[in-house]
Request: fold
Amino acid sequence: MIARLLFRARLWRDTRGAVAVEFAVLAPLLILFYFGMCEVTQAMMAQRRLSHTTSLIGDIAAQNATITQSRVTDIFAIGKTVMSPFSSTNLKMCLVSLTSDTTAAASDGTRKGTVAWTANSNASDCPKAAATVTVSDGVLPKSSSVIMSTASYTYASPTSMLISKSITFKRTFYLRPRKSDTVTWATS
Reply:
C-alpha cells in the first residue's frame, strides 16, 4: 500500500513526457494554421495576378490607335501568361471601347458610355457593341473615349482545407487612349 502511494507520488511529479503531450495537443492546430495560411496566401497571389492582368491588357489596348482581332488575340495571350503559374482555364477577359456624347453628366455624377467595339476571351458578361454602360463622369468625361478592361478569375484551392469553395475575383480598369482620341477597330 505504501509502495503504491510512493509510486503515484513519483508519477505525479515526473514531468519528462509533458512536452511530448503538449506537442501532441498543439501540433494538429499548428499544421491546420500553416496550411490555412498557405491557402489564403495563394488566393491573394491569384487576386494580385488578376489585377496585373486586367491593367496590362487594358494598357496594351490603349496604346494602339487602331486595333485588330489578331492584336486582341495576342493581348489575351499575354494576359494568360501573366496569370501563370495559375491555370488560365478559369480566366475570363474583356476589352471594351467606350465613347461618350456631349450631354451633361447625370445628377449622381455618372455618365452613360456607348460601346464602340468589344472583344472577349471566355467572358460571357462582356457588353455588346452599341450597348450603354454607366460609368463615373470622372472616368469618361463628355466627348471622350476610354478603354475598359475587365477580367475575372475563379480560384479553387488545391488543398481545400480552409477555403473549400471556389472564389471568383473580378477587376475593372479604365484607361484613356494614348495615340489618338479613340482606339478604333480595324477589320483586317
